[in-house]
Automatic annotation (TrEMBL):
One GO CC annotation: extracellular region
Residues annotated as catalytic: 124, 140
Protein name (record): L,D-transpeptidase
Domain of life: Bacteria
Matches recorded under InterPro entries: LD-transpeptidase (IPR050979), LD_TPept_cat_dom (IPR005490), LysM (IPR018392), LysM_dom_sf (IPR036779), Transpep_catalytic_dom (IPR038063)
LysM domain boundaries: 2-46
C-alpha cells in the first residue's frame, strides 16, 4: 500500500489528479471526514498503487547530465540518454513514482508513456530521435522508443523515480 506525504499547497483533489486515482477512492481509503482539513506531512494512502519499498527497481534522472539510470537492488543496471525540459518548461525536480502506462500514445510521445505522480509529466518515447540529449521537451523525460520500451518492460507501476538537477 502506497502512502503519499502531503506537500505544501496540495489538496486531496490535486493528489487524486497526480496519482490518476479517483478522489472518492482516496477519501474512502483514508476515512477522511473533512477533505478540506488535510495538513502538510500527513500520510495519505493511494489505493491501487503498489508499495515502492517492495519493488527492487529505482530510477534516477539527472537533468544536467541528461541521463536516466536504472537500478535494481541498489545496483546500477543501465544508463540511458534522455531529453529534458526546455526553457520555461522545466523538468520537475523531486521524488515521484510511475503510476500508470499507455502503449502507443502517438505523436511526440513515441511508443510508450509512463505517467509520473505529477499530473501531465511522464517518461516517454519520441517521434524525434534527434532530440535525445537536448533540453527540448515540455518538461517530460524523453527517451529513444526502444529504450523506453525496454525500461517499461522491466519496471512495474509503483517504481520510484528521483529527478535531480
Amino acid at each position: 500500500m502506497y502512502q503519499h506525504i502531503v506537500l505544501p499547497g496540495e489538496t486531496l483533489f490535486s493528489i487524486s489528479e497526480d496519482y490518476r486515482t479517483p478522489y472518492q477512492a482516496i477519501l474512502a481509503a483514508n476515512q477522511i471526514p473533512n477533505p478540506n482539513m488535510i495538513y502538510v506531512g500527513q500520510p495519505i494512502v493511494i489505493p491501487g498503487i503498489p508499495d515502492p519499498a517492495l519493488i527492487p527497481y529505482f530510477i534516477d534522472v539527472s537533468i544536467s547530465n541528461r541521463t536516466l539510470s536504472l537500478y535494481e537492488n541498489e545496483q546500477l543496471q543501465k544508463v540511458y540518454p534522455i531529453a529534458v525540459g526546455r526553457m520555461l518548461y522545466d523538468t520537475p525536480v523531486g521524488e515521484f513514482i510511475i503510476v500508470n502506462r499507455e502503449p502507443n500514445p502517438g505523436g511526440p510521445f513515441g511508443t510508450l508513456w509512463l505517467s509520473l505522480s505529477k499530473k501531465s509529466y511522464g517518461i516517454h518515447g519520441t517521434n524525434d530521435p534527434s532530440s535525445i540529449g537536448h533540453a527540448v521537451s515540455k518538461g517530460c523525460i524523453r527517451m529513444f522508443n526502444q529504450d523506453v520500451e525496454e525500461l517499461g518492460s522491466i519496471v512495474p507501476n509503483g517504481t520510484r523515480v528521483r529527478i535531480r538537477p
